[in-house]
Amino acid sequence: MTTDVQGLGAGDSKLRDPRVRAIIYQILVIVLFVAFVAYVGSNTAENLEKRGIASGLGFLQQPSGFGIGIVLIMDYSSQTSTHFDVLLIGIINTLAVSISGIFLATIIGFIFGVLRLSKNWVVNKISAVYIEVVRNIPLLVQLLFWYFAVLGVLPLVKESLQIGDNFYVNNRGINFPSIIPSEGFWVIPVALILAIVIGVFISKWAKKRQDLTGQTFPVFWTTVGLIIVLPTIAALIMGLPYTIDYPNFGRFGIKGGWVLEPEFLALWIGLSVYTGAFIAEIVRSGINSVSHGQTEAANSLGIRAGLAMRLVVLPQALRVIVPPLTSQYLNLVKNSSLATAIGYADITAIFAGTSLNQTGQAIEVIGITMLFYLSISLIISMFMNWYNKRIALVER
Amino acid sequence: MAIVKTDRHPDLPPPVSESGVIGWVRNNLFSSPLNIILTLVSIYVAWTAISGFVSYTIINANFAGETRDDCTGSGACWVFIKARFGQIMYGFYPAEERWRVDVGYVLGAIGLFGILSDWVKNKKWPAIYMFAIYPVICFFLFSGGYFGLPVVETSEWGGLFLTLVLASVSIFVALPLGIVLALGRRSEMPIVRMLCVGFIELIRGVPLITVLFMASVMLPLFLPEGVNFDKLVRALVGMSLFSAAYMAEVVRGGLQAIPKGQMEAAKSLGLGFWQAMGLIVLPQALKISIPSIVNTFIGLFKDTTLVLIIGLLDLLSIVKAGTTDKEWLGMATEGYIFVAMVFWVFCFGMSRYSIWLENKLHTGHKR
């Protein structure tokens, strides 16, 4: 006599079949979801109509009518510029602070991560204190501290601190000489890019040659030399196609030169110091994950400590470091939205803040802002995943 | 006659240069020229920083007094914090009702002790108390309106009290929601999975500020006319959804670490999906993800400061508001250092706890 396996019995209801149940559950979920969306949608439509808020993206063409503190690259005037310009400036400013922040945070993180592993007790502890203090204090507190407590107490413009001849530090920022390009200036950046490209080729050639012959080539110093020499030659050939604009005191404060505004500085320093502490921990765990036998093997082959670090330990550590590093970069970009609190004109502050208040088009504005952050996240992860794949361990 | 020494020669002590204080200093601080330079430079840096900090916050600081004029030292003026201490702790909660908050703290501390400490072995009752009874008590205690307690509007809540409310309510909502989302993300039903993945990735890809903006600006648009939440509830919705997405990923990590055999074994015993999940898989998954859950909670606790941007008076905002008061202008440094220290104590304590817990839980797998 046979016994029926549970769930397959002829008399059992179809509801006991997991596949049938899955379908029913999913239909239920879809119905609930659609009902929820429809409910929210109809409420929203009704509310929008009652408050007389237009929908659609037409508002992007309306004049903005407010001033923006920090404008990079673009021209902006509160009379003629539109909300679309505001959006673009917000994006540019967010990218500016994010990219410079990622750059500085990586440097800080790697330095402190390596120092944290130092056998020198004092160095080790200093780095540990930095990490533990910074990681356990909210970023917003740190940003406000940098902005109001550190940069806010700098002297007035009239009493600027002077460093050297042409650097002024005051509560409106740091002034330093700027370079104003004249005709033929483009040759210099082109020479710089050329130098970098040649450097990449040299490093490839050197690697190949080392594989074939075992001879090494000083790639780093050659590239540094190229980067200095080529643009200099280009500048001399074109007859120095630029003028240098020095900051100096005018009637209404300092004129000329470039200025790093305190809002930008506070955000940049704050983000980098904060993210740097997290990166330091990632670097430390990455280096710790490389088995000590690797270092010992390198030592027994007579490789110097520095070279062993660079050629043996770091490449293996990077595999562990890169994925969490990606998340830190993403966090840094997202955290740059705290600019709102200290008045740096990033996308959240001027577009999701001022533009939203002026037009009242919450849905479109918040939607566009979120879309921007989502695309940035996607691009950074794509790039880092590509890089991760490139350095990943290739096993047989 | 052979001369053979039969007893073992006593071990010689290690050379003085390699042991004790001298050896330690030589090996750790002055082992090479580079090391000597590093040591000297960092001792100098540390000395400058520590002596500067101590002289600013303690030696040259003012502790006594009532008003700004009492601040005569060159260091910090803690009179500012003292004068506003009640506000910093409770916000605008009426002074004669503050005992309710204190009672809430004491009840919470008892529950936390029951759950977190090693002394209480049976965690069932503390857990029931903490997750089912305590929130209800707190709700009636803090907002009032029943049992003869006068109503205190949420707009009067503030300071450290509001920070703690924000953090604990969000974690309380985020944990179960996160578990559901994590299960949904691992579900074999494509539509359920897609919805969960969409929600998690959407929320994780944007900054918390935009989520808070959305909650404060758009939530009223989504609801039917007449229904309106107050600002605190809107912030809570935003923060809970945000942390639920992060919590979901933490729990997913825990679920992935449980071998498939556990689920199969449960099924072969005839347990259904929910029975197997609830009795076999989830307890193990949650146990191994406790440290990450604590870490998420630390992040969430720090992120509560962002409600400053939508105008709620949490610990940070109330101190910031204080620094812009005409009577206390120029107290920014003191204010932010104080806030930083409060947050640091909380977060550092939690991170130490998480490390201790990790070590404790790890013993089961150690050989």
Automatic annotation (TrEMBL), chain A:
It is a multi-pass membrane protein. Signal peptide: none annotated. Keywords: Amino-acid transport, Cell membrane, Membrane, Transmembrane, Transmembrane helix, Transport. The chain crosses the membrane at residues 23-41, 53-74, 86-115, 136-157, 185-206, 218-244, 264-283, 303-322, 365-387. Its main location: membrane. Residues 91-384 form the ABC transmembrane type-1 domain. It is found in: Cell inner membrane; Cell membrane. InterPro entries: AA_ABC_transptr_permease_3TM, ArtM/GltK/GlnP/TcyL/YhdX-like, MetI-like, MetI-like_sf. Belongs to the binding-protein-dependent transport system permease family. HisMQ subfamily. This is Amino acid ABC transporter permease. It comes from Sneathiella marina.
UniProtKB/TrEMBL annotation, chain B:
The keyword Transmembrane applies. It is a multi-pass membrane protein. The chain crosses the membrane at residues 36-59, 103-120, 127-149, 161-183, 195-219, 269-286, 306-323, 335-355. InterPro entries: AA_ABC_transptr_permease_3TM (IPR010065), ArtM/GltK/GlnP/TcyL/YhdX-like (IPR043429), MetI-like (IPR000515), MetI-like_sf (IPR035906). Keywords: Cell membrane, Membrane, Transmembrane, Transmembrane helix, Transport. The keyword Mitochondrion does not apply. Residues 160-349 form the ABC transmembrane type-1 domain. It holds the Pfam family BPD_transp_1. It is found in: Cell inner membrane; Cell membrane. Belongs to the binding-protein-dependent transport system permease family. HisMQ subfamily. This is Amino acid ABC transporter permease. It comes from Sneathiella marina. The lineage of its organism: Bacteria, Pseudomonadati, Pseudomonadota, Alphaproteobacteria, Sneathiellales.
